[in-house]
Amino acid sequence: MSGCEGPQSVFRTGGSDAAQLEHLFLVMLAGAVVLWLGINGLFYYASRVSARPVSRARVEALILGGGVGLPVVVLTALLVYGLSIMPDQRAPGDGLRLRVTGEQFWWRVEYWPEGAEAPVVSANEVRLPVGRRTEIELAATDVIHSFWLPALGGKTDLIPGRVNRMSLEPTEVGTWRGQCAEFCGLSHALMAFQAITLEEAEFGAWLAREAQGLAPEARTAEGYAIFTAQGCGGCHALRGTEARGTVGPDLTHVGGRATLAAGILPMTADALTDWIRDPAAFKPGVEMPGYDHMDPDELATLALWLEGLR
Amino acid sequence: MTARRHSAGGEQEFAEERASLVRITFGPLIWAMHFLLSYAGAAVFCAKFPHASEHLDLLVWGIGLATLVALAGIAWQGQRSFHQWRKGNEDSLIEEDADGSSEDRHQFLGHAALLLAVISAVGVIYTALPAFLTATCR
Ligand SMILES: [Cu+2]
After folding, report:
1. Given A56, A181, A192, A221, which residue has the most CB atoms within 10 angstroms?
2. What residues form the membrane-spanning segments (chain B) (predicted)?
């Protein structure tokens, strides 16, 4: 059953919501198995074991009982059970709020701690404190996407023009994988993300770091000069600097993410180099231009500098 | 309308049959109205009071009341259909005679109306269940 393991499995849960859904699935599965056995057992009985005419009264009782009564009872029981877990799945968060916006083909992520007036902006990765219920607002600007993080909870669409809500309560520290689950264009299948669940204290420390702008020493480095000269800041933000673009992901702490380009490349200087040279080679239809005209040494310096932005 | 060929036939019988044809739509119609009322009611209510938990009882009991009224209507319709179907057809639980007489057609319409009433009642209950089991605007 190794196919059921891994960071993106509904059978390897790390949160209470996903555990509930797994339970729902198992109940449904058990019910389906019982029904299948019952119906095929009856078929077998009626055609092989006791194949003889039956009285009209019995036939009518069978049709009314098995064809009307039983389905109504079974479906009602399943509906009541299914509906009864909905309030849990929709429970409000207990403090931290995230806003995730789907973009072609990446995720804009904002952290709104309780009482915050401005968000901590990040991208392509979701970090959540264990033992807390975090509310997640889901929006989109271009087309419909879907936020699916099977290890932690159900699937919810991100729809332009409206805000959908879900909440997640991780119960286990770990690194999980999520995936856009609604076809959104050429690179839909390459629109993934990492979810990292942390102990509350650790999460707090990370969020405080993430909230800071670009480190002063990063600003004086050569990489920053290259970044500015190439005009990357027109699309990307480095908080606390002139780079304020919002077309692409916030790069202030890009090196601190576990993956590059929404879950498809490792966060290494080599991968960054390849990505910047030709993003479309990894993600067809991507909105970032390629920089294959750059001097290879400059490109390597830029990549190494980005990788160091933790 | 071949009904006229039969002895009892004529305009009056045709009118009666038309009435029972219309009547078979009552169950589903009540279901549709209840559905519309519940969903539109919940949508309007949640748009007006998105964070309401104190007013929510109002919505839930409103839907509950609409459900009772709808079920009563369907039950009334159902028992009328039951009699229409069973009159002169006491021997079978699930079939009417199939000689093609106008009496048989009359019974058939009663049978169809009864089955539609049953499915409508189930539909009404299923429509109302979320209001009681989830009871949230989220
Ligand atoms: Cu997408």
Report:
1. A192
2. 29-46, 58-76, 108-133
pLDDT averaged per 10 residues in sequence order, chain B, 138 residues: 44 70 89 96 86 78 94 94 79 62 80 92 94 82
- Chain A residue nearest residue B129, CA to CA: A80
Please tell me whether the overall predicted TM-score, pTM, comes out greater than 0.90 for this model: no
Q: For residue A188, report the distance from its CA to the centre of ligand 1, in Å.
A: 5
Distances (CA, A) of A85 to A18, A22, A79, A199: 12, 12, 10, 26
A127 C-beta neighbours (distance < 10 Å), count:
22
**What is the spatial order of strands in the sheet that A155-158 belongs to?**
A125-129, A192-198, A174-180, A145-148, A155-158
- CA–CA dist A181, A166 (Å, integer): 15
pLDDT at A111: 97
Cα dihedral sign for B55, B57, B59, B61?
A: negative
**Contact A4/B at CB under 8 A:** no
pLDDT at B4: 38
Q: Do A87 and B134 touch (CB under 8 A)?
A: yes
- CA of A162 vs chain B CAs: smallest distance (Å): 13
- Domains annotated for chain A, with CATH where assigned, are 1-51+90-210 (2.60.40.420), 216-307 (2.60.40.420)
Q: What percent of chain A has pLDDT over 70?
A: 99
DSSP letter at B99 equals: S
Which pLDDT score is estimated for B133?
A: 87
Residue B88 has what pLDDT? Answer: 67
Which of B93, B111, B116, B118 best probes binding to A when mutated, by most A CB atoms within 10 angstroms? Answer: B93
Q: How far is the CA of A109 from the centre of ligand 1 (A)?
A: 14
Out of B94, B129, B138, name the one closest to residue A79 (CB): B129
Q: Which of residues 37-56 of A touch B (CB under 8 A)?
A: 56
- ipTM value: 0.76
- Reduced to 3 states (helix: H, G, I; strand: E, B; else coil), residue A64 is helix
**Sign of the C-alpha dihedral, residues A79, A80, A85, A86?**
positive
